[in-house]
Model the fold of this input.
Amino acid sequence: MPAAERAPSFLRSTRATAAVEFALVALPFFMFVLCILQLGVYYFAQSALDTGVLKTAQTLYSGFRTGSSAYAPSASTLKTSISTNSGGMIQNDSSLSVEIQPMSNLSAGSVPITDGVNNYGTTTSTLVLRAQASVTTFAPGFSTLAVATSSAIVRRQGT
Done:
């Protein structure tokens, strides 16, 4: 039978239509699910980093307020505190950058975080504790969500 005679019966056939429809819908559906999961991972990591930075800032404030001598933990101590206070979501490894410095040292524009900067200023300085951590990305097109950043302001009071 020539192809021209088989064409009408081929076009009327409904066999395997579910497989074709699944093939057309599956890729966009799974990409949508991956995107939702990626956003969830990013926001969970951002929330964990915010919690770690805020709790570390509260610890610093308590140390400044009640201490009789200067309370100035090292960068590695700050990293450990942020990692511990983040509930285990943020790892204390090379992907975590932490700095603390007086607010007057930061300009009005975007200032990148320099890992390991420990400048506690004077006894009445307003300090900014900033942290940045890498976030696992697995969905294509989400490279902008590869880094979470958080900051907190702490006021030194007499130590």
User: Anything to note?
Assistant: Residues 17-66 form the longest helix (50 residues).
